Amino acid sequence: MVYFVGAGSGAADLITVRGARLLGEADVIIYAGSLVNPALLDYAKEGAEIHNSASMTLEEVIAVMLAAEAAGKMCVRLHTGDPSLYGAHREQMDLLDDAGIEYEVVPGVSSFCGAAAALKAEYTLPGVSQSVIITRMEGRTPVPEGEKLRLMAAHGCTLVLFLSTGLLEAATEELLAGGYSPDTPAAIVYKATWPDEQVFRCTVGTIAETARDAGIKNTALVTIGGFLGDDYDRSKLYDPAFTHLFRTGTGEGEAR
Ligand code: SAH
């Protein structure tokens, strides 16, 4: 059995209870050493076989899983954040399907959630934005035509840029071309939830120079949008006048 486990965004105690239990039971652990906090390996049992996938190919990762399965061992594949975002676990699952090996996925705290916590921010503020676009600048991995950053930016909603710290000059151009004004609030969150987490608040116009001045080159997210500003509407859900399924308010209304 193989478990794809989300390690969470950094802090070792942000893994789920289920993920930590499985890590502790695993005979074989393959972890993404470029981004997973090595402190997570403290959950491993004595004698567990540990592989760092940073230097491995997909085929090598699968070979370790197949060998574990053949020996009747339990294997945890530890991915950073939540595996469903830029985790490349689909291709592993497909090869396990081909090999007839069973697997399960255990979600994790994605770094975009860790970043919101670091910022003490809510991405979906009423009256500001009700949508979050998770995207990236095009790098060696192409981005589909309809998802070019300037098209994403045209929505003006909350936007979280993954995997783009080395491309911030070009990203800024796209964000501005798409329609964010240069003074739209932005923030760079470096190593969200790690012990050495850092937060840099800036604007769309100053993202690139802020990262340059701070020497930020990787393991960072850029968040953009009015959610980082001061103005928003109160929620309907906790409005005293608002009636919903679980509470009768003093006024009209029923839907969120
Ligand atoms: N599956 C992961 C993302 C993997 S892609 C998740 O759910 O978070 C790797 C990119 O994620 C990095 O280039 C960086 O942009 C971002 N990232 C991962 N961990 C981070 C962290 N702790 N703080 C800020 N950004 C992080």
**H/I helix tally:** 7
Note the run of SSEs as H and E: EHEEHEHEHEHEHEEHE
Give the CA-CA distance, first to last residue: 42 Å
Structural class: alpha/beta
- Mind telling me the C-alpha Rg? 21 Å
Question: Using DSSP, what is the number of strands?
Answer: 10
Tell me the helix content.
25-40%
Main sheet specs: 5 strands, parallel
What can you tell me about this protein's structure?
With 256 residues, the chain is of the alpha/beta class. 25% of the residues lie in helices and 19% in strands. It contains 7 helices and 10 strands. It has helices spanning 17-25, 58-70, 90-99, 111-119, 149-153, 168-178, 207-214, and strands spanning 2-6, 28-31, 49-52, 75-79, 103-106, 132-136, 158-162, 185-190, 198-203, 220-224. It has a 5-stranded parallel sheet with strand order 3-2-4-1-5, sandwiched between helices. The protein has a 5-stranded mixed sheet with strand order 6-7-10-8-9, sandwiched between helices. Strand 8 (185-190) and strand 9 form a beta hairpin. The longest helix is centred in the N-terminal third of the chain and has 13 residues, at 58-70. It is globular. The structure holds S-adenosyl-L-homocysteine. S-adenosyl-L-homocysteine binds next to helix 4 and strand 10. The site of S-adenosyl-L-homocysteine (SAH) has 24 residues, from helix 4 and strand 10.
Please outline the helices and strands:
Layout: E1 2-6, H1 17-25, E2 28-31, E3 49-52, H2 58-70, E4 75-79, H3 90-99, E5 103-106, H4 111-119, E6 132-136, H5 149-153, E7 158-162, H6 168-178, E8 185-190, E9 198-203, H7 207-214, E10 220-224
Parallel strand pairs: 1-4, 1-5, 2-3, 2-4, 6-7
Antiparallel strand pairs: 7-10, 8-9, 8-10
Helix pairs in contact: 2-3, 6-7
S-adenosyl-L-homocysteine is lined by residues 9-10, 35, 79-82, 85-87, 110-111, 114-115, 162-163, 189, 191-194, 219-221.
